[in-house]
Amino acid sequence: CPASGIVVYGEKDELVSKNSINDLNNRLKSQKGIEVNFSEIKNSNHFFKDKEEDLKKTIDKYIKDKTKLI
Question: pTM of the entire structure?
């Protein structure tokens, strides 16, 4: 059963197609009670080679946004 979270993928992913990412996004949107954010890392491959800092910033921002006090 799906859970809320984040999916981070590379713009130039050579293993997972953009269509597969879009299909997953569309399927998860139909699930009730969850929210999944999709974030693309520009100019990154599947393993985020040389884009580790961008990956870290994306994950850090997601965590801060989801845990900030209201």
Answer: 0.88
